[in-house]
Structure formats: C-alpha cells, structure tokens
Amino acid sequence: MTGGQALGILALGAYAPQRVMRNEEFEAYLDTSDEWIVTRTGIRERRIAAEDEYTSDLAFKAVEDLLKRHPGALEGVDGVIVATNTPDALFPDTAALVQARFGIQGFAYDLLAGCPGWLYALAQAHAMVAAGLARKVLVVGAEALSKILDWNDRATAVLFGDAGGAAVVGRVREGFGFRSFVLGADGTGAKELYHACVAPRLPDGTSMRNRLHMNGREVFKFAVRVMNTATLEAIEKAGLTPEDIKVFVPHQANLRIIDAARERLGLPWERVVVNVDRYGNTSTASIPLALKEAVDAGRIQEGDHVLLVSFGAGLTWAAAVLTWGGA
Ligand code: ACO
Fold this sequence. Notes:
This protein is α/β, with parallel strands linked by helices. Helix content is 31%, strand content 25%.
C-alpha cells in the first residue's frame, strides 16, 4: 500500500505508573463490588499516576523504555506525534515536550481522536514517511486519565487507568510492515463520551461537564458494531482473511467487547492479547502497551500478521493490519 515502500514499526516501548489500584479500593467508598466490575468489564486493577505525574511524564517514560530496548532508535526520527486525550496543557502540545526532552530535530504535534488516537497517529506517520516528509516518526500514546475522572461516578471511575506507549515508524524490509489502515468517525455520537475543555457545551447545545462523562450503554453498542466492521474491512484491505491473523490486539476497554469481536472473527483466545484485567482502559496507550507485552511474551514472531483495532470518543474508530518485523 506504499507504492513499493514497506513501512512498519521499528521500535516499541511502554510504561505504566507504579501505583496499582485494585477494585477493592472502590468497594470502600462507592456502591460497587469487585464481582460487578470483573463480570461486567474484566478489569481487576489499574495503574494510577502519582499526584505530580502527568501525561508528558508517562510519554517520557514510554520513550525511555523504547530506547532501553532499542538503543539508537531515535536516530533519523524527523518528527513526533503524541496521541492523547489528556494533554498536560491546551498548548504547548505534549509532543513539543517530548521533542525537547529527547532532542529530536523536526516537527511535533498532538493528535486528539479518542482512544484510537494512537492508530490514527500511526496512519499519519505512515503517510508522512511514504510522502517523503520524514524518514522516521516517533508515535506516542499517553494518558493520565485519572486526572479527569469523576472518582464518585461508579459508571466511569472503575474503567480507566494511566499509561504510555511509543513506537518508531519507518522503512522495513519488503514483505513486512503495514498492509492496511481503516479510520472512521461519527460525530453524531459526540454526546456519548466527552470532557469539556474550552466550551462548556457541544454544538447541539448539550451542556458538558468538566469531568469525563460517558453513556456506557451507547458506547458499548457502538464499540461492538465498529470493532466488527473495522476489523473485517482492514483484513480485506490487507488482502487477508481472518484465519490469517496470528495475533489480534484490540483496544483494552472491556473484556465483553473484546470477546464479541473475537467471536465474530472466529479467532481462538490464544490469538487475542488481553491485559485489560491489569490496566483497565488506558485509551491511546492501550494498544502499544498490549503490543509490547505480547512481543515480550514471545507471542508475536517475525512474519506474523497482526490486527489492531480501537474505538472511542468522537465517536471514532480505527483498525490496522501489519506483518510484524522486517526492521
Ligand atoms: N458498580 C455497580 N453498578 C454499576 C457500576 C459499578 N461500577 N457501573 C454502573 N453500574 C450500574 C448502572 O448504574 C446500572 O444500574 P441501573 O440499571 O440501576 O441504572 C447497571 O449497573 C447496569 O448498567 P449498564 O450500563 O447497562 O451496564 P453494562 O453491563 O452495560 O456495563 C459498562 C457498563 C461497563 C460501562 C459498559 O456499558 C461498557 O463497558 N461500555 C463501554 C465503555 C467503553 O468501552 N468506553 C471506552 C471508550 S474509549 C475512550 O475514548 C475514552
């Protein structure tokens, strides 16, 4: 799909804060239970950033992890994209902070597109390298969602966690790398999942809260639908069939949503990467964190076809298929 130029992931890193918050901590002050949270979501615990730890800190740690695993990986990087829904500030962009921290020469901007932001950013990095605008691009997904949660809202507080993930996108050997991207949005669903920033209302007049607000039931239905359509479209665009997918890395929001997508694709659990039980929904960090764990566990080998998919606020969705390796 790149006119003879194979582009893929050259390096990967991720980080989750030290503090582990288990479901039992919610039982102490909310009308909820570990049993409810586990059966409805699959989440048992999540990581929470320290009081003075923000999205930029998580982004830095994810890039440091990437560098530890792949020394020299930032050589030839011509720009940084940070996908986040919880930037430290409205401006400057968090990517500029990453660019300065690691002394990268080149462009830097944030991308806001709900949880699929990291996949959107991979697609942009891919397009930029293919167009000759950069040799390599550093693509980060980082979130300090704990800073914007309503900790007294049991319907949202239990779902999210904090983390960061990072990848370098660039040229790989022929036969490897990205085979397809699918990106989509349906802004008519904006009111189902939001966090007010500058304007206190949506264009349709919906009054917005300054805390994460979600209509879980509507987002659930939307998620199941787009996880199915986007994955099948990405697989078809890649010239493959579901059986060809060796490893499926879905957005880690809810085990029931993952299971619905898995079943629709006819994939056994052994091919599905799940860590929602330990991290909850970390939004843009979700896929790189899960991908890194799968690589470390030896579950992804060179030449494997890997399927990524995500959904989130916007409402938005994205999927990608890549053939792993070739660096
Ligand atoms: N503990 C106990 N009860 C709860 C809790 C809780 N933590 N949360 C909600 N409930 C209650 C509700 O109040 C409701 O009670 P009611 O019937 O008296 O009104 C009842 O449980 C059932 O609520 P539902 O919403 O029908 O529960 P459901 O089985 O759908 O699970 C959930 C709720 C987990 C939120 C689910 O809808 C979901 O996962 N939705 C998708 C959310 C998601 O993935 N969001 C990520 C978006 S990505 C991004 O961009 C940020």
